[in-house]
């Protein structure tokens, strides 16, 4: 079986003549097969240069004809140009071409017009596709459960190499492609951070900084970490401002300076609504629920409406004023949906005041020490919970804790990113107004605010110093 490929410029008369000859051969010879490649004139030289370099050919004009020794895509054996193809057809098959010059010019003009129409259709198809662009820094398990992005036809996943993890991200890219998801348009890995967040609709930031080196001075360690965070997330904010969609939504998760990272992003993206940024408290909230569930001998899912205030990765306070427990084995039982106040069911006040907070603070570190890796599963679950609530209508009764920009509610200084109780409705969050702040709670909130202001002041001082040195 003879398998040939014919390629040429769309407006080349000799490509048109070779094309007609190839059609005659294929129509009259059952074992002759031709594949035609029509290239736009503006792309021809580059296309031919690449084809010759790939196959080790020397050819400089249109058209070019080669024979494939395997199915299309295999190694090609160069035949030559139009004259070589005509000679081959006459010698092997006794068939020639008698197309006159006027017809050659007419067909070549039609070829160019058809090629340009095809290009326009392809551009229109790409523009109408409009996949949702999701950017993720560092590593994360797949986030493609149904319901996260309702009504979404396709999405493109962008994995950003933020700390020398490109090889691992390439592995994750391969695994994601193996999922064969119908909604997945493409997966790309980006190591050039100057091009980060192009067309981004959603951005998910994870921890991407190494822990500070051990030092005798804890404050030096903290200043060093704040310095890294400040410079990197100011840069990220500027890239979001320059490259991302103006309605981009951003989630910041992790174990270090989560509130500060969110604050730096907001400060450096003036054209994006600050309400589109949130620091994820959900993982910490669920860790608190786990300790309460174990104390009450119920499942973690049976604890609801736990509120976490303050600095997510620093000084925070766990508030149980609205917390409920379902299916608790106690003196009072009720139908499905019956709940009781957690504060009424836990009689060990000493445990609440001491051991409870200590257990929550150590919980993530304890898991990591046993698995020798970050708590990726619970991080992913927290992000999925927030995405579902943000992109769908959550129940107005559901209370979520999130680090969001303060406008002065509860006496929290305006402009701080502070974890507060919120609810979701119509794709937007709002701070709950039905939460009581006692004098004791206000003192704890003030302590959290002082720590966050100190982190922000350190970052501002470092960035100012950095700018003077430029």
TrEMBL record:
Pfam families, alphabetically? Ldh_1_C
* Keyword annotations from UniProtKB, A to Z: Oxidoreductase
What would be an example GO MF term here? Answer: oxidoreductase activity, acting on the CH-OH group of donors, NAD or NADP as acceptor
- Domain of life (superkingdom): Eukaryota
Record-annotated Lactate/malate dehydrogenase C-terminal domain positions: 288-455
GO process terms (BP): malate metabolic process
Keyword Oxidoreductase tagged? yes
Family per record: Belongs to the LDH/MDH superfamily. MDH type 2 family.
Return the protein name: Malate dehydrogenase 1B isoform X2
Organism per entry: Cyprinus carpio
Its organism's taxonomic lineage begins at:
Eukaryota, Metazoa, Chordata, Craniata, Vertebrata
